[in-house]
Amino acid sequence: MSGVKRALTPNGWTLRTRLVAALTAVSLLVCAVVATVTLLALHTSLTGQLDDQLAAAASRTATAERPPGDAPHRPSDLPAGLRFLGAPGMGVGTLGARLVDGTVTDAGVLDSSGDLLQPSFAARSALTRLPADGQPHTLDLAGVGSYRLIAARTPDGDVLVTGLSLEPVNRTVVQVAGVVAGVAALGLLAAFLAGATIVRRSLRPLNRVAATATRVAQLPLHQGEVALSERVPAIDTDPRTEVGRVGAALNQLLGHVADALVARHRSETRVRQFVADASHELRTPLAAIRGYAEVTRRGHEQVPGDVAYAIGRVESEAARMTTLVDDLLLLARLDAGRPLAQDEVDLSCLLVDAVNDARVAGPDHRWELRLPAEAVVVTGDQHRLHQVLANLLTNARTHTPPGTRVTVSLARTGRRVRIGVCDEGPGIPAELLPVVFERFARGDTSRSRAAGSTGLGLAIVSAVTEAHHGQVRVDSAPGRTEFTLELPVRQPRPLEPHSPLTAVR
Ligand SMILES: Nc1ncnc2c1ncn2[C@@H]1O[C@H](COP(=O)(O)OP(=O)(O)O)[C@@H](O)[C@H]1O
Ligand SMILES: [Mg+2]
């Protein structure tokens, strides 16, 4: 319904429709004005000619009235009052009438056989309203038709009316009107067709510019390295034309955008490279710190209690920092699109191992594993997939109280596998849920702080899953939190780097 409404309102019309409609409307108006003026002029001119003939007939009437001597042409069969109609030159259809004291005494119209036809009563009474001024007037006489009439007074006071039918004039005007209408219709059709063709041709460059803009709009420009090579074709960038100016400006804009995107990509790459380099460089000193702390702790000499405590703290914080640095390095590598390994990964085995590890780390939780009967094998990076599962299981352990049941399930549907990690813990806080996969997003409970939370675990889950062309989602409510991971069984293409420019160690 609204579509129909929009189609009928000019606002919803395309430029092409509007131009063609305007052109057709203007043509229609011009045709109407020309036709009206022509027909009016024709009518006036024909009526003028008729008036000349009428004036001649009226003067013959006056002459015929003048007695005596000049005998009427056909005196015999005309009534006495209308004898003037028999004067030579009175044509068929001529109307004659005599009014005495404002009343029609005689009236008749000459027919083709020379007889007189009697006008109707209404026509006769209409004749009485005619002014006797010797000027032509138009009257519609019922039953007789439209007439031009002249009324003149005779010397003895009678009024004589002479009239000629307007019917030939009207017929000619109607015929000419028909011809004009036909020609105008053809002209309008021609104007419409020519207009539509011309407008379509004129708008073609604009369509090409719009097509370029549409193609650019569909490019994924929001991230990564973008090759923005789309440009408006050179023929549509002539600055002397309107469309050319739009095309040239669009090309200039696209040039700027392309430059900006290259600059953005360079700076992104630089930041990524910096994070990767920094993480990489930090690993060696961290390993040294951990090593020295361990050596000191295990040293044979007894160290005072507070020193032993301090060394223990140094060791645990160094271990935490190592995890953080490893996570950062992994994310930087995934961002850079570093190729992942393409192993044949037995997910069933991987799950068994991961759940066993979790059982050891969290003996107070109740761990359940549901596997399909046959082994599920996918292509992917075994290490990374193991890390994904470990992160999810660690979360299920560290963000839930002891005794919570955690169910890990695996299912294969067609070309995809689904891994579910579901716990019956308190759930993810509502304000955290929308951003839970973002980097450094974490709940601020004392439990998670104590668990050495970094906020990178789920970011890694998400990045690794995406690199495997899979999806991860979470549904969480108090009492039930479920992470669902979907992976394709076969990787669609070799796992390639997103950007060959970026080399991260
Ligand atoms: N199973 C879960 N139950 C409750 N909260 C969770 C669960 N998994 C994740 N979270 C919340 O999501 C946050 C982000 O998790 P993650 O990215 O792994 O970081 P981290 O575990 O290092 O805090 C956690 O801090 C925690 O608040
Ligand atoms: Mg975590």
TrEMBL record:
Location of region: Disordered = 58-80
The entry's keywords: Kinase, Membrane, Phosphoprotein, Transferase, Transmembrane, Transmembrane helix, Two-component regulatory system
Compartments where found? Cell membrane
Q: Which residues form the HAMP domain?
A: 200-262
- Cite the InterPro entries for this sequence: HAMP_dom (IPR003660), HATPase_C_sf (IPR036890), HATPase_dom (IPR003594), His_kinase_dom (IPR005467), HisK_dim/P_dom (IPR003661), HisK_dim/P_sf (IPR036097), Sig_transdc_His_kin-like_C (IPR004358), TCS_sensor_his_kinase (IPR050428)
Indicate the principal place this protein occupies in or around the cell.
membrane
Record-level Gene Ontology MF annotations: protein histidine kinase activity
Point to the regions of Basic and acidic residues compositional bias. 67-76
Report TM segments: 20-42, 173-199
Concerning SUPFAM superfamilies, the annotation shows:
ATPase domain of HSP90 chaperone/DNA topoisomerase II/histidine kinase, Homodimeric domain of signal transducing histidine kinase
What this protein catalyses is:
ATP + protein L-histidine = ADP + protein N-phospho-L-histidine
The EC code for this enzyme is 2.7.13.3
Enzyme class (EC, first level): transferase
The name this protein goes by in its record: histidine kinase
